[in-house]
Design goal:
Structural class: alpha/beta
Largest sheet: 6 strands, parallel
Helix content: 25-40%
Radius of gyration: 22 Å
Shape: globular
Number of strands: 19
């Protein structure tokens, strides 16, 4: 579609919506913006619509588009129309934000101008409007991938896949299909990094496959890419087994792009994890509190729990994502002896605990109640990793993380 002289509606006023408005202006289109769950009257006379990733597939805009034969785009797709730099794209259930951030650190160490954007930081469309970078490092959610055409990713990585966002996608098959769209349009000159045994049925591209565990791996404390060691695992500032996997994925992607192993090592050595990812939140009466508000699904919470030492209490719960929590209680390490549950999906979590025979699950009235109960339990550590989205009480995981830290501070008699 030629946008010049056309009129469009942008649904969503967040980061993606703002980026879409900038892109449409550069493409020569007239656009109006709305942030509503209903179809605004302004849609009449529009030639197209742009939807933000948070707009559900049952939003009235999709029915209107079908009836009126009106194209619907995503902000990622608009960015693709303007972008000139090769794209390194990362998706997956867990680890994508950290992997993308590690890649940003690697490219900085290599002296390559790279724009880190997408589901992290600013929008891809905004970055594409500015241009001027040698590479785009793009974090892609399943929502964004559904509306990503005509994006083509030169080096793609699927970190892992486990049940997530089933309230949106309906089932694991549709969720997996959404993730596989990262390979759409790839040719044998492009690369796709995947976990071992990932089901690729339905993939529409034909990339060169690179496999985690075969082409990058850890052996005897050293990290290898394409059969050659490039650093020791204990040189990573980002601790935990999950961050070793993230570092290997980032290293393999950078290596496929021609980044020298020395720069990969330097970038990974200098990388420090972001906030709310198993971040220390204070020590109270000998008990260490950790903030993993970014743990928005079961896989992320289990990865965080496996990083804990000594007797540990987990604080979990939030908004529902459409799955049960049997896997959580099946996979918790033995040192997690209590789970304090709060949030909109509390009943479902407690039902799973009972079904799996986990006796240490406790219902709490609020996040503050959970923090106080955990603090008085005599544990060595308390891990806040909700295994749930934040939208029952908070705008995002960052706001939720700040709320947790505020509750921990109250233990010390301070609300500052």
């Amino acid at each position: 579609m030629t946008f010049c002289g056309k009129k469009g509606l942008v649904l969503g006023s967040g980061t993606s919506g703002r980026g879409a408005m900038l892109a449409l202006k550069k493409l020569g289109a007239e656009a109006i913006q709305a942030d509503t769950e209903y179809l605004p009257e302004e849609i009449t006379g529009c030639d197209f619509a742009v939807v933000s990733p948070g707009i559900r597939h049952d939003h009235p805009v999709y029915k209107y588009a079908r009836v009126h034969d009106m194209p619907v785009y995503g902000e990622i797709g608009l960015g693709a129309m303007l972008n000139k730099a090769p794209v390194i794209g990362v998706t997956g259930t867990n680890g994508k934000t950290t992997t993308v951030s590690m890649l940003g650190s690697i490219y900085e160490a290599a002296g390559v101008r790279a724009d880190v954007c997408g589901n992290i930081g600013r929008s891809f469309a905004e970055a594409a409007c500015e241009g001027g970078c040698d590479r785009v490092i793009l974090e892609l959610s399943s929502f964004q991938l559904l509306q990503a055409a005509p994006l083509k990713v030169h080096i793609a990585c699927i970190t892992n896949l486990s049940a997530d966002h089933l309230d949106y996608h309906g089932n694991m098959l549709e969720y997996r299909h959404a993730k596989l769209k990262i390979a759409d349009g790839q040719t044998p000159e492009d690369f796709l990094i995947v976990p071992e045994k990932l089901n690729l049925v339905g993939m529409r591209g034909s990339p060169t496959l690179l496999v985690f565990g075969r082409d990058c791996y850890e052996k005897e404390g050293r990290l290898y890419v394409m059969g050659a060691p490039f650093m020791r695992a204990d040189e990573l500032k980002a601790g935990g087994r999950h961050n070793v996997q993230n570092a290997l994925n980032a290293a393999l992607a950078a290596f496929a792009d021609g980044i020298p192993p020395a720069a990969i090592r330097d970038g990974l050595m200098s990388f420090v994890p972001g906030d709310y990812r198993i971040s220390p939140a204070g020590v109270y009466n000998g008990c260490a509190f950790y903030n993993d508000s970014k743990g928005t699904n079961i896989g992320a919470t289990l990865a965080a729990a496996r990083c804990m030492t000594g007797s540990t209490a987990l604080i979990a719960g939030g908004s529902d994502k459409g799955y049960d929590y049997d896997e959580l209680f099946r996979g918790l390490p033995g040192n997690v002896t209590a789970v304090f549950v709060t949030g909109g999906n509390s009943a479902g979590i407690l039902e799973s605990a009972a079904r799996m025979g986990y006796a240490g699950a406790v219902a709490c009235d609020s996040l503050g109640d959970a923090v106080r109960r955990a603090a008085s339990g005599g544990f060595d550590s308390v891990l806040f990793s909700p295994a749930s989205a934040s939208f029952d009480r908070y705008a995002n995981y960052e706001e939720r993380g700040r709320a947790f830290e505020s509750e921990v501070k109250k233990l010390f008699g301070s609300t500052s």
